[in-house]
Fold each of these.
Amino acid sequence: MVDPDDLDRLIADRETCVIEHAYVPDAPRIFPLAVRCTLEDPDSFGLLDLESLANQIDGFPEDDLLDVDAEAARITRSASFEPHLMLRTRISLHLPRREDSRSPAVEARIARVALRWPTVTSAEGLHLEAGGRRAVRFNPLSGCIEWFDIPMTEPKSGRDKDIAIYRSPDMRLWITQPGELYQRGEILGEVDAEVSHYLLSGLEARLYDGTGRQCANGVELTTKIHTMLRIVLDDAFALRKLSPHQQLYFEEIIPDEMRIADLVTALTDNRFRVHRQEPVQGQKDTHLVLVSRPEGPERMYLLFMVRGRRHRAQRESQVPGGPRYRSSFDSGDLQVYVYGQLPKDSSELTHEMNAVQRALRERFDRLRARR
């Protein structure tokens, strides 16, 4: 021990005091790190995630759906049958929200993602997109492909008062040689996350100098979280979302709200639940309708894009042996673009699309017959 009256001995670098305390932090009542991996085909690239849209409360995101022509082009495009695959990885970090608002802002990031690759591969066959193009490398010592330093952000909408949720951007790993995964049962991996200015255990740390005064700068607090992941390839291939497309065209149908009501009625008659039904801003006579219904353990989603065009038409009639009469009236036509998403099997999707098409044709044929 050092005599308080002889503080000069503290700078003599001859005495050292090491104090150890056994400490076991309370385990948090949440799983802090969640990793979701899915495999997707090239024909699904660029399509909207209908499940995410159905769960949003703020309507359709403008950046994705205002360009109606671009969406229609995606829906009606031909299948490319490219041999690539894309592994989409999404990571969420859940932290108990800190009560002290005077502490520095929490900063979260994915420090490292590593996937044990089944063969020795070149980085030229793998491309990563994660909030801007990122470098990916193959580590021959560990047999893993790795990428680093992905920032995580907390969305402003839907914040919970007790739990802070940080999300990474979609990390899309493009696999140009998917044959390397052939007859492989699984892929193992690791994820390391780091949280600055935060201790998950709830421990409060302070720094004092040799005289017992608390240092103004304090200490740097960092929480490191390590988790293992396992991708069962058979399940990942089986759960790929298939997205068949259809385009329907109805002549002599005036695009108005009643026709959207006809579509919604046809869908509810087929046991679909309507999640979204709203016009597209800046696009006249254009509506979007998003519906879903349970299909076994999964859920089937259908997105309808209804575009209308109005015009004047003329009709000629003649009484036998008499003069001809010409009249004009309001008319139009409807284009209905539809695509759906369902894991495993697309036959049920195609069947439901055809059923909706038949129901709409029956309704619209009766409208034309009354005119």
Amino acid sequence: MLVLRHELTVLRRQIKRPQLRRRDRLFLSAMSRMLPRERWAAFIVTPATLVRWHRELVRRKWTYKRRRGQGRPPIDSETRALILRIARENPRWGCVRIKGELQGLGIIVSATTIRTILRRAGLGPAPRRDGPTWHQFLSAQAKGIVACDFFTVETVFLKTLYVLVFMHIQTRRILGVGVSANPNGAWVTQQARNLMMDLDHDPELCMRFLLRDRDAKYCRSFDAVFAAEGIKVVLTPYRTPRANCHIERLIGGLRREVLDHVLILGRRHVSYVLHEYAAHHNSHRPHRGLGLRCPHDVGEPIPGPGPARPEAIKRREILSGLIHEYHARAA
């Protein structure tokens, strides 16, 4: 008995959890009813494990196999394709309207089945089944959309500064930049007023929408400034920075081109750097979304290729040579 017990101890050290078959479980469960409780220490399983095995047996008892050949017959692929075709071609039709159209064609399908087919295909209920996506909305309304967003800048003294930037979607122009160490409601509202005053001096910009995220820094008075001018504030979905991709691209480019290479001393310093970059961004920097043209040239005729002599090109340094601009000398 001592040798057998020692062998069991060695085996338990080698195998942490033995793999038991169904016959092993039945044998151990039957022996547990025959042996007294004080002898249960000889089992390799605990009493809780035996109870769990019993619960699994009860659960399997009430689990029935699905018998084939019963229930509603499946919808054939041709009818399913026809339903999806009608739904896409008529986005304002509901499930009952589609059911009536199919009934006129001699096809009987319930409205519930039609709704299930549409949901599995990713088509929502009418009348917004194929509503405009964010890309379609921004492309169609780009002329009247101004986007804004916050980002942070860390100074050499480890102080966090908050920057609010506004950009016109169609022309990619930076309309305003504000810097604050404490962007409270009064400061954010004043930035909105400054933007509206700047737009009054630029009649070419017809602002109809303001696109922003759901940051708590935007207070009610901030939205009220735009609502008073008949401008609708459009909020991006939760945790979806791609919905405001143009301003996110601007912030990323600003960091890679300037802020990642400059040690910021304070609020005045970062304000000077950002305004210098904004002037370069609007008047000279080419943009891929504009056909490699700068924002100030949007709407102007594209100049034809002219003679470019290397000795006639002069360089202008921005931010102490961090950014270079190249211009042709006047003849």
Amino acid sequence: MIKTIGVIGAGQMGNGIAHVFALHNHPVILCDLTEWRLASALATIRDNLYRQMRKGLVEAGNIDEIINRIFLTTRLTDLAAADFVVETVPEDEALKIDIFRKLDEIVQPGVVIASNSSSISISRIAEATAHPERVIGMHFMNPAPVMELVELIRALTTSNETFELIRDLCVKMGKTPVEASDYPGFLINRILMPMINEAVYCLYQGVGTRENIDMVMFLGANHPMGPLTLADLIGLDTCLAIMETLFHGFGDPKYRPCPLLRKYVEAGWLGRKTKRGFYEYG
């Protein structure tokens, strides 16, 4: 039975995933490298809970109780108390593999470890552990407290028992799990990121302004936001990392990241989280 949830990484995705589990009555162990990142994550979770309260989704009297379910730590070894762990660190394969190797020695026997990877092979991550049958991809959408979809990716070694356990957990969280095969980008980013990359090419080549590129997809394709706005929300560094995974994974030039996307990342213009991407944020 899964009760206590471990979350590694307190960034944009990690704090959102911790929020989801704490909201659904799970004690959460949220782990990151520094105290200030953890404090920032908890402040974000509190702000988002108040936002849900104003929409009538959370009772005001429950907010402190939800927050108190989240235990903050900088020690990976504290995850020994978790019944399930999900990793949400940046899209860096070597970093993820290192974490999974360490977790494999920390977690209790039978505990499933999931990666929130948005494009990196789950099979390669699983191979780094002694129990690859207990490794699965669990890709939440951003923002995790709002978005219904969770992409579930089996490694070649993922057991049916592991898959069913995590699928049921998604349903209990009010999410809709969708299975995807373990290919670069899985389903959502195999489709979404080339569209965003092409939008960046349109800006790079002067086909349209940033506003017009977004407007044609907002009004013409009925998307909730334009692709450049969405890229800023996701993080341009994440978009670039996924495009690199697609490009190297398939060896197909259609996945080549736009030079403008790379230039923005090199300049530190990563989107909303740095207050500057394709748009400026006050």
Amino acid sequence: MRLLITRCILLVFIFMPLTGWCEEVLPSWNDGPARRAILDFVKKTTTEGSSDFVPAEDRIAVFDNDGTLICEQPLYIQFAYTLDRIKELASLHPEWQNMEPFRSVLDGRLTKLDSRDLEKPFFDCVLATCDNLAPDESSRAARKWLSTARHPVTGRLYTEMVYQPMLELLSFLRANHFKTFIVSGGGIEFLRVYTNTLYAIPPEQVVGSNTKMRFENSEIIITPEIDFFNNGPGKPMGIYKNIGRRPIMAIGNSDGDLEMLQWTTSGAGPRLGAIIHHDDARRETAYDRDSLIGKLDKALDQAPQSHWTVVSMKDDWKTIFSISGNQTPNDVKGDNSAD
């Protein structure tokens, strides 16, 4: 009898980590409505025989990047990179001294504009820094910057500004046969430099904004023209074009994710929409309705009526940033090309 009990206990410990229902799941999350909503959703969608069971091939979970998986204040990381890249290339473009928006970048005025005035200048700068480059060249420049660039407030590498609770959630979902995608307004070439390293999300599972390209002399060349802006209403269209399935889970943090949340949760069957609410001024930054970066207003108002889970960084997360010591400069390898 004692041997039988021992074997049963061992079986429980063997299978608990595989199915994800032990107490150590999501250890950086406080036990509360948000954590329970996630656990309950995953349990019912992965339990065979449940009326809410979802086959593995349909377990698609999509995540915004900036402000959802990694910090976005005081500037989106790609914006910070682009500003530095303009300064780096300025000696090759003396005409920029008298051209906007480059002149404003070089004298430090651009970041003082209202975010509503930043979209076009930002895209102009992005396009200028990658014009006539092969994607591998563009990736190498971004990779080099990421290996040393540090957050202006914390002094940590940007690659260390990843949210530990979200890393745990990504791993938990994949352990339960969810396929995880990034759906971001950021440039797809820039994102693919680090998504596999930081999140274990490979480049083919990244949906982002992209430029037009041409094929020349056996090589792909980036051209200075936006092909698709993957933000706001562009997100559900980007998901459909690139993934071909409506997700059953979507997590974002701003009004740029509103349509992605609406489309995901309006489908038939079990659905989960969640918003990461930046309300922890002590450990990170508190912002929502009035923020120039990552504004959260309309989506926050819609959350109760659409039954979206609002995750409070202050109340729901025991820790904010990755606690693993994370990336050293040499850890940031190219995820979509070899040197």
